[in-house]
C-alpha cells in the first residue's frame, strides 16, 4: 500500500490516479493504514436504484441477488453496481482504529456506526451472506469494511431500531436538501413520493411549504397513493408513471391550474424519469434529482430540447447535519416513525 | 405518423412513449407534419464531448469520422452519440414551414437559422458528407433536418460569420449561466478554460467577478495557459490535468491561500473530471457542470464521499436569452471576436 491518503487513493488498484469512487477496483485487504477505520459489518443497505436493477436482472430471487452481490464485491473490492454506478451504505461495529486517528476521530472500538459515504467507494470484504431482505433492499453479512480518514459516519442512535436508522440514513440527504429548497407557499412535486426518500421529502415539503403551499406526490401504484393520502401530508396524490413525461405534466397541470411545480424532487428508483420532472416544473423552477438512475445528458439536453429554463440540481447525498436532521423527523412525527418502523425494523 | 405533438413524440419509433431526446430511434422521413419546420442543413456542429469521443475511437481520421457519423444517423435517425449521450446543433436554411405554424413561428422559407436544440433529438437525414473539419468539430453536409413546434432556433446574425456563430451558439448556455452564478468579488474556477465554452465563461466570469474577484483557468496544455494569460481575463492560468483531482485541488488551493473556489464552471470535453471540480470548490460553493462528459453518479456520490456540501448544477443548455447574450459577447469584445473568428470562420 502507498502512503495513506485522507481520501483513500492508496486503496485504488485501477485506474491509478483517480479517487476511490471513480475507481474500477479497490484494494479490499482488511489490514488498515494508520488513518483508516476497520468495521465489522452487520448489514448493507443497497441503494434502491442498484437493488432494483440487480433484483430485476436476476429475476427477483434472494439467492441470485446474493450471488450477484458477492461477484460484484469480489471483482471490484466494493459494492459498486457497474450498471447504475451507485452503492448504498452499511452499519456495523468499529473493530479497529488506525493509530493516527484513534484519538481524534471520536470513536471507540466497539461503537456501533453507520457509514455516511457510499458503498461505491468503501473497501468491502464479504465472508458470508446471511440474509437478503428483498422487501427492504438490505443484506445481512459477515464481513469487514474500511472507512477513510475523510469518510463520514454517524453513531447509531439508541432510540431508533438499527435497521430503521440504516434505511433513514441511506437517504438522509433528500429531506435535508428539500428543507433548503422549499419556501412557504410553494408548490412542491415529489416524484416517487411513496418510497423511502420520497416519503421523507413529502413530509419535509409539507413543513416548509406550509398551509399556503401545495404538496403533490406521484406514484404509479394505487396503494402508494392511498397511503400518501392517509398520512395527509400531500394535497394531491397522483397515480401516474414517472416515465410517461407528458402524462406527469398533464396530471400536475390539472391540479395546479396549469401553473406546474415550483420545486420538483425526483426520488424514483428507475431510469427515464428526467423529462417528466422537467415538463412538470414551471419555467424558472428548480428540480432536485435525488434519484441515482438520473442520466446527466437526458436532463441537460432534455431541458434544452423543450426550451425549459429550470435549475437542475445533482442530488449530493451529503448536506451538513443531514443525518441528525433525518433521524429527528422520525422523533418529531409518530406517524412517520411507525410507518418506517413497520417497514424496516 | 401519429398526431403531431409539439414535443415531437410522433417521431419516436422506439421506445414508444418517451420524448425524442430519450428515444433510441426517430422517424427521419423528411415529410413534415403541420407543426414542423423542414431545414436544408449546411453544417453540423458536433458537441465537443461527442466529437472527441468519436475522433479518438476512429483514430483521428476525417473519413472515418464521416463514416461513423453516417452510421449513427442511419441507425438512430438523429446524430445522437450512443457513448456520450450528447449531440450538438446545426445551421441551415428553412426549406418548408408546416401549415399550422407558418404564420406564427416568425420564419420565412429561405431564412438562415441555427437550431438551439440538441442534435440528440433532431430528426436528421444525411444525403452526403462534404467536409469534416477536425479542428473545429464541424461537418458540412447535404441533408435535411426537422424542428419540432417547441424547438428553439435563432436567425443567423448578419454581422458574424456563420460558422463562428454556429460555434458560439452551440455553447451559448455556458456564459449565460455563468452570468447568473457569479457575484462580484468571488473566486471563479473555469476547468477547461482554454476551450470554446471555457473561454466565453472566463470572459463572462471576469465581467461578473469584477476587479475584486479572482478568475482561475485550468488547462493541461501550456499553449492554452499561455493564451489565457495573454488575453488577461484570468488572474491565474493553471496547467493541470482536470482528471487529476488532487492536483487540481492543490493548484487552486495554492493560488487562493487555501480558500478554494466559490464557483466552479466545468467546461471540459473528456470524462472523469467531477472529483477535481468538487475538491477545488469550497464548502458551500457551487459547481456548474456544463461538460456533457459528466457522470451523474460520480458527481453525487463523489461529493458525498468526501463530505463536501456543495451545490452541483446540471448544465442546462438553455437559459432565456442565451443566444443573444453569447453573440453580444463577441460584439462587445474585439479580442474575443478575433479569437473566435480566427478559430471558426
Ligand atoms: N443522491 C444520493 O445520495 C442517494 C442516496 C440514496 C438513494 N438515492 C436514490 O434515491 C432514489 C430513491 O431511493 P429510495 O431509497 O427512496 O427508493 P425507494 O424507497 O425504492 O423509492 C422509490 C420509489 O419510486 C417508486 N417508483 C418506481 N417506479 C416508478 C415509476 N415508474 N413512477 C413513479 N414512481 C415509481 C417506487 O415504487 P415501488 O417501490 O412501489 O416500486 C418507490 O416508491 C433511488 O434512485 C436511489 O438510488 C440517492
Ligand atoms: N450543457 C450543454 O448544453 C452543452 C452544450 C454544448 C457543449 N457542451 C459540453 O461542454 C463541454 C465543452 O464544450 P466546448 O465546445 O467548449 O469544448 P472544447 O472547445 O473542446 O473545450 C474543451 C476544453 O477542455 C480541454 N481539456 C481536454 N482535456 C482536458 C483535461 N484533461 N483537463 C483540462 N482541460 C482539458 C480541451 O483542451 P484541448 O482542446 O486542447 O484538448 C478544451 O480546451 C463539452 O463537454 C461539451 O460536450 C454542453
Give a quick rundown of the structure:
The structure is a homodimer of 345-residue chains. The first copy, chain A, is α/β, with parallel strands linked by helices and 345 residues long. In chain A, 34% of the residues lie in helices and 25% in strands.
CATH architecture of the largest domain in chain A: 3-Layer(aba) Sandwich
User: What small molecules does this complex bind?
Assistant: NADP nicotinamide-adenine-dinucleotide phosphate
Tally the helices of chain A: what do you get? Answer: 11
Query: Briefly, what CATH class of the largest domain in chain A?
Result: Alpha Beta
Q: How would you name the oligomeric state of the polypeptide chains in this document?
A: homodimer
Strand percentage of chain A lies at 15-25%
According to CATH, the fold-level topology of the largest domain in chain A is: Rossmann fold
Q: How are helices and strands ordered from N to C of chain A?
A: EEEHHEEEEEHHEHEHEHEHEHEHH
Largest interface: A-B, 58 and 58 residues
Strand count, sense and closure of the main sheet of chain A? 6 strands, antiparallel
Mean pLDDT of chain A: 97
How many distinct domains of chain A?
A: 2
What spatial order of strands do you see in the largest sheet of chain A?
6-7-3-4-5-8
InterPro entries (chains A, B): KDD_N (IPR058932), NAD(P)-bd_dom_sf (IPR036291)
Family (chains A, B): Belongs to the zinc-containing alcohol dehydrogenase family.
Protein name (chains A, B): L-erythro-3,5-diaminohexanoate dehydrogenase
Cofactor (chains A, B): Zn(2+)
Amino acid at each position: 500500500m502507498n502512503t495513506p491518503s485522507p481520501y483513500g487513493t492508496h486503496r485504488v488498484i485501477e485506474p491509478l490516479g483517480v479517487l476511490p469512487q471513480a475507481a474500477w477496483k479497490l484494494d479490499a485487504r482488511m489490514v488498515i493504514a494508520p488513518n483508516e477505520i476497520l468495521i465489522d459489518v452487520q448489514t448493507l443497505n443497497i441503494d434502491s436504484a442498484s437493488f432494483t436493477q440487480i433484483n430485476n436482472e436476476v429475476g427477483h430471487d434472494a439467492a441470485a441477488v446474493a450471488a450477484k452481490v458477492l461477484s460484484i464485491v469480489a471483482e471490484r473490492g466494493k459494492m459498486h453496481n457497474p450498471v447504475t454506478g451507485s452503492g448504498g451504505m452499511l452499519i456495523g461495529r468499529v473493530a479497529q482504529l488506525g493509530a493516527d486517528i484513534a484519538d481524534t476521530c471520536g470513536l471507540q472500538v466497539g461503537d456501533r456506526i453507520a457509514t455516511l459515504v457510499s458503498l461505491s467507494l468503501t473497501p468491502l470484504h464479504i465472508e458470508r451472506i446471511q440474509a437478503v431482505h428483498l422487501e427492504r433492499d438490505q443484506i445481512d453479512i459477515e464481513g469487514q469494511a474500511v472507512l477513510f480518514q475523510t469518510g463520514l459516519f454517524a453513531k447509531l442512535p439508541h432510540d431508533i431500531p438499527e435497521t430503521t436508522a440504516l434505511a433513514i440514513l441511506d437517504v438522509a440527504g433528500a429531506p435535508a436538501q428539500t428543507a433548503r429548497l422549499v419556501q412557504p407557499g410553494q408548490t412542491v412535486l415529489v416524484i416517487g413520493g411513496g418510497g423511502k426518500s420520497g416519503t421523507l421529502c413529502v413530509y419535509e415539503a409539507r413543513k416548509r411549504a406550509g398551509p399556503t403551499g401545495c404538496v403533490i406526490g406521484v406514484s404509479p401504484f394505487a396503494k402508494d397513493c392511498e397511503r400518501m393520502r392517509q398520512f395527509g401530508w400531500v394535497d394531491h396524490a397522483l397515480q401516474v408513471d414517472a416515465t410517461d413525461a407528458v402524462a406527469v405534466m398533464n396530471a400536475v397541470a390539472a391540479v395546479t391550474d396549469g401553473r406546474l411545480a415550483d420545486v420538483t424532487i425526483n426520488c424514483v428508483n428507475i431510469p427515464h424519469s428526467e423529462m417528466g420532472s422537467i415538463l412538470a416544473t414551471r419555467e424558472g423552477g428548480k428540480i432536485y434529482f435525488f434519484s441515482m438512475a438520473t442520466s446527466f445528458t437526458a436532463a441537460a439536453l432534455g431541458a434544452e430540447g423543450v426550451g425549459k429554463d429550470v435549475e437542475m440540481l445533482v442530488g449530493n447525498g451529503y448536506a451538513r447535519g443531514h443525518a441528525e436532521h433525518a433521524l429527528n423527523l422520525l422523533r418529531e412525527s409518530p406517524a412517520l416513525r411507525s410507518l418506517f418502523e413497520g417497514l424496516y425494523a
